[in-house]
Design goal:
Chains A, B: Belongs to the CinA family. Two copies of one chain form a homodimer. In chain A, 43% of the residues lie in helices and 25% in strands. Chain A has 416 residues and is an alpha/beta fold.
Chain lengths: 416, 416
């Protein structure tokens, strides 16, 4: 089965909103054995929606539309759909009750007109209930084709996908299974990773497809396999992964949606260790990432964002003299911060960052992008120097990633 | 002039990568007076790229392609382009030198084959130099149509857009100017905001278009205007903005790309005040957001991520008894955290968060999503209760936004 995803909204064309819905839906369909042939964004115009819907309906088996179902006047998807399927609107009591219940839970007992209009649904449609918002979704089946319409609010669309759409489409899907796995690396540039893997890629591409996807957090290696059954696809992916790991295991910190903070979280739980973090140039990003993981309170003792020298001295016990002699951005201060936060907090491991995030703050010997990352446990304390780029946010990202990667390698006994 | 944006890459269809490039390009074209009619994503397939390019070339004046120009084997855009324009590859010395220089700056003096292949360019193309990576961009003009091809790495594409493409297209653009402005609100749900603005929207939509865009950080109100000249467009936008502000000024914290952390940064600089932050449930996100702003070291004294009770007691001076009597998630502890971090750091203002981010940690009286936000200055200390949702990351986002919004309103003397 082939699918087209149509995402609707002027905000997408004008670039006001980033199209995360398309990538989420693309991923879910691919995993279900439905191949996404194209993704198209059109504006909030009845004509454009109907035109694109016609094209997609003629050329593909499944069409997924999102957006333009909200309670405000600029949302025209519902009327476009009604025209396309030649159907009218009727009041649906189930939807009305669901809207009431949804709002009541949020302490609002009175429905305004915008809220009530959500219960008007296309007569021909099967309803997809929305438990995460007020706009219901719709499903049409005609001439063996499936058209699914969902709101554009990511949480609501995702709720409907997971609660209903994926199951529904899985039962219909007869195509070969597309299976993908992503190996996430960090600490090695794309061209160097490719050089190490060139021969391996050539070999395994006989049965799979390999792509390299670089970002500030590292390079992802994506394996894609197409096979008749899930079992066959799994086996081929496993074989490709094994060959790649033989060459670059050290750099692979996780797979698929695994973030580095999840990986180190599992390792810390497994080893029963606690960490504390002392951040200067990363400004809280490391703590933020660590605490994005549910259950992180088990191993994350505290984070200190010691932006001022006073904070470094007062809460981390860094000596004033050290800062005066070497500067706040130095090996010595990074080490003192990591050791200080570990000892004062009573955690097993301390990590630290100090650097010039930019755009200001550089000196002739300390350019923007210079970052020292410190590590301390009961056996050793050290710091490593890095040169990232000249973009402030990217420097924060890359420094936080490298700090977590150093922690991962230490926890696993991998050379840094 | 009308444009189509074509973004290339299996990773987009399979949902491995979110299409931020399309939104960035859409925004820039709209601002240049070029109207983006559609955005299409296709896979790394020569045929699909050529097919879509044919359609776009026939129907629109400008076609922008990104992606698939990297140094690895899965990048096929260059060969597709060569076929479409019936041209061959030639070695370009300028590009080769630029690649060498780019890599030398990063300490790499030897080029591998992948690097060298970047200097092979379509003979018919005008070259767009890439100072941010190794793959050059290409420009073709034929039959009055413009086709621009750029790499998919966001930083490189953005560099080329800002350095060359926007200027180039501005000179060609003859269309009416599309001007947009976004007013960013927080602390009021979409339906309530719409209710307050319903009559105003009806009135001003005679000369502009209004859209409501909700997210975890608040609801954006987007004004879109089309006019013959930039001056006329500016005047109409200003008029619409004025009418909207008359009704909901209190909730508008910024415009366009302004983030709340930038707004409070400016206010703090203006007033010469310093802040310190004590975070529990937001886990460093507030500090991270504040330090995303260049120059934040001027007013951000420190951040404490007091995840453990020990940290709350040891570094913030919260009394053990208070935590025992009221629990860590309580008005009393939020107030003590905000006051503690302010007094200990010597900052003028302290803000704090303590809550149940989820998915675990809830009790019968303290559900997931319950958050107390504390504020303290020399005149007063208070905390406010919020109920967010059941999603951990969204709770962190919403709590960080509300904490910064409380700070903004206090700094401006707006009622909370």
């Amino acid at each position: 089965m082939k699918a087209e995803i149509i995402t609707i909204g002027d905000e997408l064309l004008i670039g006001q909103v980033i199209n995360t819905n398309a990538s989420y839906i693309g991923k879910k369909l691919s995993e279900t054995g439905i191949s996404v042939a194209r993704i198209v964004s059109v504006g909030d115009s009845e004509k454009d929606i109907i035109d694109e819907l016609k094209y997609a309906f003629e050329n593909f088996d499944v069409v997924i539309l999102t957006g333009g179902l909200g309670p405000t006047h600029d949302d025209v998807t519902k009327s476009a759909i009604c025209k396309f399927f030649n159907t009218g609107l009727v009041l649906n009591e189930d939807v009305l009750n669901q809207v009431k219940e949804f709002l009541a839970k949020r302490g609002r007992t009175e429905l305004n007109e915008a809220n009530k209009s959500q219960a008007l649904v296309p007569e021909k449609a099967k309803i997809i209930m929305n438990y995460w918002g007020t706009a219901p979704g719709f499903l049409f089946e005609e001439n063996g084709k499936i058209v699914i319409v969902m709101p554009g609010v990511p949480k609501e669309m995702m709720g409907m996908m997971e609660n209903f759409v994926i199951n529904y489409l899985s039962k219909k899907s007869t195509g070969s299974v597309i299976k993908q796995k992503v190996l996430k690396t960090t600490g090695i540039p794309e061209a160097y990773l490719y050089e190490r893997l060139k021969d391996t890629v050539e070999e395994i591409e006989k049965f799979c497809k390999i792509a390299f996807l670089p970002s500030a957090l590292g390079v992802k290696i994506r394996i894609t396999v197409k096979a008749e059954t899930k079992e066959k696809a799994d086996a081929l992916v496993e074989e490709a992964e094994k060959k790649i790991r033989e060459k670059v295991e050290k750099y692979i910190y996780g797979v698929d949606d695994e973030e580095l903070e999840m990986v180190i979280g599992e390792l810390l739980v497994e080893k029963g260790l606690k960490i504390a973090v002392a951040e200067s140039c990363t400004g809280g990003l490391i703590a933020d990432r660590i605490t994005n993981v549910p259950g992180s309170s088990k191993y994350f003792e505290r984070g200190i964002v010691a932006y001022s020298n006073e904070a470094k001295i007062q809460i981390l016990g860094v000596s004033e003299e050290l800062i005066k002699n070497y500067g706040a951005v130095s090996r010595e201060v990074a080490e003192a911060m990591a050791e200080g936060v570990r000892k004062i907090s009573g955690a097993d491991i301390g990590i630290s960052t100090t650097g010039i995030a930019g755009p200001t703050g550089a000196t002739p010997t300390k350019p923007v992008g210079l970052v020292w990352i410190g590590y301390s446990d009961k056996n050793e304390t050290f710091a490593k120097e890095f040169r990232f780029g000249d973009d402030r946010l990217e420097n924060k990202q890359r420094a936080s990633q490298m700090a977590l990667e150093i922690l991962r390698r230490k926890l696993l006994g991998i050379e840094i």
